[in-house]
TrEMBL record:
Keywords: Signal. The keyword Cytoplasm does not apply. The keyword Signal applies. It holds the Pfam family Por_Secre_tail. One of its GO terms (molecular function) is phosphatidylcholine lysophospholipase activity. This is T9SS type A sorting domain-containing protein. Residues 1-21 form the signal peptide. The lineage of its organism: Bacteria, Pseudomonadati, Bacteroidota, Sphingobacteriia, Sphingobacteriales. Residues 240-318 form the Secretion system C-terminal sorting domain. Residues 46-214 form the SGNH hydrolase-type esterase domain. Gene3D superfamilies: SGNH hydrolase.
Length: 320
């Protein structure tokens, strides 16, 4: 075998390896996963056949893996309540049983069968709006955090009827977006991500493995956004580096907006420097301390919010 043939053989093997590796790349972990205030991630997925799973493929298995890999030490509980062929009206009849005693998030992915019935003149789109509104209200009454999903398009490339169904899909998605704003809840815009990439489908509407993996990413990102906005644990990190010489940094994680006072004390308990006395919003804030005015030694820094809800005290060492 010539040199060029051998080189081509190894190139093909390496190309296959890297393509395979790219296909199994996991979800990127958000920084907020480190500061999630709950012991468990609980997600109810509610809908029709895409939620139920088709031919042994579903998005929940991918979503579970995403959370297990990123939310270390947390219990992950992803439940699915999907019934193939259901409309929003049929789903409404079983929503209370599905969410009884549940906590956390609920993913509402339902309505494609409504679009079929609307196109056939068997249902009005106003019924879909009324039903989704009720699904949202029932979820809120259970103190769940609703996530409404837009619906993916049908593969209408060879079927004029499905083109008409997709017209109804767009109208339903517009309604869902309106309801999300009205109730101040969250949207997982699956339609915008999948678009019309029918290579992600296993039939006219149901996602294949790649499509379900993509749906899991959309939901994972949406839930992470909610956690970053609503479910962070107040955290003050140890300064880094410690010991510090000239500059050291401290991260403050705020679960909600509050006024924060940040002071440095000597070991006698005397306040020697006010670093911060200002409002901070929800999220992570990195504070840099200039240590040049401090003599070598051990100091105490204390961070407390004006509401008294959040407080932390730690020691730091200054060297020269």
């Amino acid at each position: 075998m010539g040199f060029r043939a051998i080189a081509l053989f190894f190139a093909l093997i390496l190309g296959f390896f890297f393509r395979s590796a790219a296909q199994i790349t996991g979800a990127s972990c958000p920084e907020s996963a480190q500061y999630f205030s709950k012991d468990s991630v609980n997600v109810v997925t509610f809908g029709a056949s895409t939620v139920q799973g088709v031919n042994g493929i579903d998005f929940q298995s991918y979503l579970t893996t995403n959370f297990i890999n990123c939310y270390i030490g947390k219990t992950i509980n992803i439940q699915k309540y999907g019934v193939a062929g259901e409309t929003t009206g049929q789903g409404l009849l079983r929503i209370d049983n599905a969410i009884a005693g549940k906590t956390g998030f609920i993913v509402l992915l339902i309505g494609a069968n409504d679009a079929i019935r609307i196109e056939a003149g068997q249902q009005k789109i106003s019924e879909t709006e009324t039903n989704m509104r009720a699904l949202i209200v029932h979820s809120l009454n259970q103190n769940l955090v609703p996530i409404v999903c837009t619906l993916q398009n049908f593969d209408d490339r060879k079927d004029p009827r499905l083109r008409r169904v997709n017209t109804q899909i767009k109208l339903i998605n517009d309604i869902y977006k309106k309801l999300v704003i009205e109730y101040g809840i969250y949207l997982a815009d699956i339609n915008a991500v999948i678009r019309r990439d029918f290579s992600l489908y296993q039939d006219d509407i149901h996602p294949n493995a790649r499509g379900n993996r993509l749906i899991s990413f959309v939901l994972f990102d949406t839930i992470n956004k909610i956690i970053a906005e609503k479910f962070l644990q107040f955290t003050v990190t140890q300064n880094y580096p410690n010991p510090g010489r000239d500059i050291t940094s401290i991260d403050i994680i705020m679960p909600q907006s509050d006024k924060v006072e940040f002071k440095i004390y000597n070991l006698q308990g005397k306040a020697i420097q006010t670093v911060l006395n200002e409002y901070l919003n929800t999220g992570k804030h990195t504070i840099q301390l200039n240590l040049s005015s401090l003599a070598p030694g051990v100091y105490i820094y204390r961070i407390i919010s004006s509401t008294g809800l959040y407080a932390a005290t730690k020691k730091m060492i200054v060297i020269r």
